[in-house]
Amino acid sequence: MTPFEYISTKVFVRIKPSKIQGVGVFAIRDIPEGINPFEVWTGDTGSYPIKESELETLPKELYTHIKDIFLYSPEFPNNTDTYVELTNGCHWIYTTPYYFVNSNLKNFNIDKNSMLTNRLIHNGEEILGNYGRYERFIEKSFI
After folding, report:
1. Is the full-model pTM beyond 0.90?
2. Residue 143 confidence class, pLDDT cut points 50, 70, 90
3. How remote is the C-alpha of 131 from its chain's centroid?
4. If we measure between CA atoms, which residue out of 111, 105, 109 comes closest to residue 122?
5. Of 1.10.150, 1.25.10, 3.30.300, 2.170.270, which CATH number belongs to 3-142?
6. What are residue 13's phi and psi, to 5 degrees?
7. Per-residue CA distances from 133 to 16, 19, 101 (Å)
8. Where are the beta strands (DSSP E) in 18-116?
9. Which end of the chain is more exposed for a tag (fewer CB within 10 A), N or C?
10. pLDDT tens digits, residue range 89-117?
């Protein structure tokens, strides 16, 4: 899979402030039911050039997110490619974005066990998991 194929087919979320609690994970485009929005990059770790013409085919929020966090080539303005950093075994730019998923036991939209969405999640919607407030603490403390 090329870096652009990964970005265009596997990147669905970003981290930003949450009204529920601190930081949350939000959809930057619609996420279909049955998708793992945290699929990791399995290619080599590196900095990859993406052409502007490719970036312009992405959903607006994903395009803006990329432009907000990545830079043009060091040869700008002669080279207008945007260079994205991808790390093997990491999702997009975050090692464990699921850590930032807030809990909502009644209205969750991602299952914590399967890591799959349980319904269509709309662009801008916060990703909410079905785990209790202290579950991660208890699991880590007694394992």
Report:
1. no
2. very low
3. 20
4. 109
5. 2.170.270
6. -135, 165
7. 20, 16, 11
8. 23-27, 46-50, 71-72, 82-86, 102-103
9. C
10. 888 766 666 667 777 667 888 888 788 99
Taking the CA atoms of 109, 115, 19 and 124 in sequence, report the sign of the dihedral they define: negative
**CA-CA-CA-CA torsion sign (124, 68, 23, 99):** positive
User: What 3-state class would DSSP assign to 61?
Assistant: helix
From the CB of residue 135, how many other CB atoms can be counted at a distance below 10 Å?
13
d(C-alpha 74, C-alpha 82), whole Å: 10
H or E element, residue 60: helix 60-69
CB proximity list for 79: less than 8 A, separation 6 or greater: 49, 72, 73
Look at residue 75 in the predicted model and tell me its pLDDT.
Answer: 67
* Residue carrying the six token digits 């945007």: 82
**25: which strand partners?**
15
Half-sphere exposure of 112 (CA within 13 A, CB side): 16
